[in-house]
Every structure is written in C-alpha cells, then in structure tokens.
Amino acid sequence: MSSRKIRVVIAKPGLDGHDRGAKVIARALRDAGMEVIYTGLHQTPEQIVETAIQEDADAVGISILSGAHMTLVPRIVDLLRERGADDVLVVVGGTIPREDVEELKRQGVAEVFTPGAPTSDIVEFLQSRAAG
Questions:
Q1: Is the pTM of this model over 0.90?
Q2: b (16+ CB within 10 A) / e for 29-51
Q3: Which of 22, 38, 84, 95 could serve as 63's disulfide partner, Cβ 3.0–4.6 Å?
C-alpha cells in the first residue's frame, strides 16, 4: 500500500462568493495529514476537473452555497468520467436540500455534507474512501 498523502482538490464553482467553509475544511484536511489544493473562488467545472487531473487528486471537494449544485456538480462528475478520472472521489459540502442529496448520489457523488457536519466526519470519510 502506498504511503502517499491523500490529495484533495477543494473547489468553489460558479458565482458563490463565500469561501470560509471551504477554507475551514481545507485546514482540517491538512491538519489530518492530507495534501490540499484549494482552487479559489468562481471556478468553472472545466477548471476544477483540469486541476484535479493535473494534481492527480484522489478526491474533489466541492463547496457550494449558490443553489446551482444540480447544474454544476453533475457537470463536474461527467467531465471527470469523460477524462478517464472516474476513480476520483467527489464530495459536496454546502446548503443542499435533502431531496437533492439522493439525486446527487445517484449521479456519482460519494457523499454530501451539509452545514454543521463535523470536520472529523469529512476527514474520516475521505480517509476511508480515498486512495492514499
């Protein structure tokens, strides 16, 4: 088994301008020994997927509060598949209505974390599911 650190791209797609939560998660993942690449605000799905591939990411964490998750997240999942990177774990965090969570999972999202989820839950999920 490889001892390489789990590599996670944290991304903020679309017009959402609030990144405090993304930064909190990025710090928690780093503190847990993961390598974190934060893309910054206003990324397109194409930019996010390109970063994930260039960085050989094990997971992509998408932070989204804008309400555009049902458009942007499936596009990211589809682009990863098209690029042959369908082994990259996709997790989503943000204000996601309960009825959308199951649909996102059906479309290939590994897990959805809503506001108030303990960072330890996110760390443990990635440690258990992402190949390090």
A1: yes
A2: beebebbbbbbebebebeebbeb
A3: 22
Domain count, the chain: 1
Q: Which amino acid is at 51?
A: T
Closest residue by Cα to residue 115 from 91, 87, 95: 95
What domain range is 31 assigned to? 7-129
Give Cα separations from 120 to 36, 88, 103, 117 (angstroms). 16, 21, 25, 8
CA distance 103 to 43: 23
pLDDT tens, 34-81? Answer: 999 999 999 999 999 999 999 999 999 999 988 899 999 999 999 999
Ranges of beta strands (E only) in the chain are 7-11, 35-38, 59-64, 89-94, 111-113
Does residue 2 lie in a domain region? no
